[in-house]
């Protein structure tokens, strides 16, 4: 079969130029000191058609040969007990765990700890960043969202989707979470196999999939961009909300997500070590992504209206107020052009809440110790996760 190639087909498009010359892309260039060009485009673009073949084979050998809950329990046993060469398990399972149980030489536990501490220290700002910048901003990339459309993620609802993302993020960013057999390690392996399961299902059932334009479903290049969202975009968002971080914490964020990416089967060459590298990699990827389409708008509005559907807050006026605050943060964190494309409603005094947050963060920095903020952030984030899990696990949010 002829090997597919792609071009930076949107590099001259208004949405690409606006982002990198005037919008958040320009801010990312200033923030990171990146030097962008298309000289390395071909080195990265092949990954638009590259997938995690090891994960896919495990799904074929385990999930497609038995009932889903039996397969899940089997995988959980492997994760918690480990797999050796002599175990009587499929070859694909041995391959997967040979890779994930191997600690790469570059792994630095001190940096993992620093990255986790910044995630916790950011407290609710971390969650605002994930939701209103990383997740909402990602909806502007039309091809990136095609697997969500193909797997009918909209029908599942934003509450459930947000709960799953939060569950993964929180469990990957606690102390020692990524040790072998620990909770974050477990989430990484399970997420990797969910991606493979979704990809194989899309290839089998979704006949309209346009591989040439959209790449393979959940391909390695799109995965890289997603994890740059958790590192570079997340850091930029924290900074925009008035948070400061040390050089060690910054390195730690990239290191943490590099290791998560490694566990998820993303090729190491795609995993950036710094904001400069991440911005340069991200620049190339954005050149193959068109702007929002109708599916993007549906996903964005599903996320906005999640606050109204979510029963965590008891009263309707509280839910409406929470939706308003998220809209304010979305306008503050994303480019105006992106918000207009996603049809984010305009609201009065939209800068008031973000500007108040910035002021509070500056005061916090002066009067509350780093350790106290880490401790409080961890507690508050765990509480938000518990609230989400309580409504999605014990209700009709499926």
What do these coordinates show?
InterPro entries: Lcp-like (IPR037473), MPAB/Lcp_cat_dom (IPR018713). Pfam families: MPAB_Lcp_cat. GO terms for molecular function: oxidoreductase activity. With about 400 residues, the protein is mainly α. It has one domain. Helix content is about 65%, strand content about 0%. It has helices spanning about 15-20, 25-30, 40-45, 55-60, 70-80, 90-100, 110-120, 125-140, 145-150, 155, 160-170, 185-205, 210-215, 220-240, 245-265, 275-285, 295-305, 305-310, 315-335, 335-340, 350-365, 370-395. Helix 7 crosses helix 15, helix 11 (about 160-170) crosses helix 12 (about 185-205) and helix 14 (about 220-240) runs antiparallel to helix 15 (about 245-265). The two termini are about 40 Å apart. The model has no long low-confidence stretch (mean pLDDT about 95).
